Amino acid sequence: MSSSSKSPSDVNMISGANAVSGVKVKKIASVAAQCVACGVCAKACPLGAISAAGGHSAAVSTDKCVGCGRCAAACPAGVISMIPRPAPSPSDGGPTVSSAPAAGSSDRPATGGSHSGSAAGSASSQAADVPHSAPTAGSADRPAAGSADRPAAASLKSTATSSGPAFPSARGAGKHWYDYLWIASALYLTLGFFNILFAWLGLICFLVPLLLAIFGGGKVYCHKYCGRGQLFSLLGGKLRLSAGRPAPAWLRSRWFRYGFLAFFMTMFANMLYTTWLVFSGARTMHQIVTLLWTFKLPWNWVSVAGVASWAAQFAFGFYSVMLTSTVLGLITMALFRPRSWCVYCPMGTMTQEICRLKNRGGRR
Ligand code: SF4
Ligand code: SF4
Predict the structure, then answer these.
(1) Per residue in 283-300, pLDDT tens?
(2) Pick from 53, 79, 82, 52: which is nearest to 65 by CA?
(3) To test the ligand 1 pocket, which listed residue (38, 45, 81, 226) has its Cβ within 8 A of the most ligand atoms?
(4) How far is the CA of 52 from the centre of ligand 2 (A)?
(5) Which of 9, 212, 302, 330 would be a feasible disulfide site paired with 217, CB 3.0-4.6 Å?
(6) Residue 250 and residue 275 in one domain
(7) Number of domain units in the chain
């Protein structure tokens, strides 16, 4: 992740303005309970001060955070607030790591306090040394797009280059091979127009995230290897095709996320059943791709000659799933923030739940 690639000099340069050194910084990022552990904030943070490495929730390192608000501006779920920096505890004499669980939530880490307030200003406040309003207690919802409570992306950008400390670039620094997996995703969708059997490769996007989460990798797939998420970042961020609003509260609510997961898995099971019917000879193969589980698109220009009909049927069904999820992701990318799909992606929900369960097990 790019945030981990900061040079020591970069970090030292910025920590000169950090509260740890005793000056200026009045705010700190705080993550609410609805965090989906997508890891977008970690990519946005120029200091590596926030991480979703555990896969169940993001956590802020108070000794690194300088309250710039970049993470809050990037979070697709809109669950990060900038709150007044808590005073260091006299007992420990210094900063701690805040995982910011919501009060009363059973799925939050046990450490840290509940921060559900909103920022009083933008990122410029980090250098202005002005008082900030106290967080609003108890609210699980975040400020709406365009609200004065939210740090605007544009102001963050200008602040970082004018009055604030000169942040090292969070993007572009230390590119890795996996930063280009969006090409594979784009290629995958394109190849389905020419040979539907390439759809089978989509199983990688189903199995790898689950296996990584089960065997201790957390949500590393979402954080690093999800080409589709990268594609949304590219289209919505670099090409500015995104409205840039945080996802609405209903989209990040548990009932919607788990309801969508249940619906998604039901449709997936139905697709497997159809494949079985073709395999058993109970029905013939249908050479169609179904978009949004409703619109049947004729796909009969691709040749399936010489292929077992059940294998082709599975490919049509799986391609339908991948195309549908991409179209949904593009719609929410356009309406909200670039990676809003990550807020309700069934794979993201499943892997987060696996990490949550593993985390609970580890604490017993
Ligand atoms: S939802 Fe994603 S971007 Fe927002 S705090 Fe959680 S991990 Fe970070
Ligand atoms: S407020 Fe700035 S420094 Fe703090 S975690 Fe967010 S991006 Fe990083």
Answers:
(1) 999 999 999 999 999 998
(2) 82
(3) 38
(4) 13
(5) 212
(6) yes
(7) 2
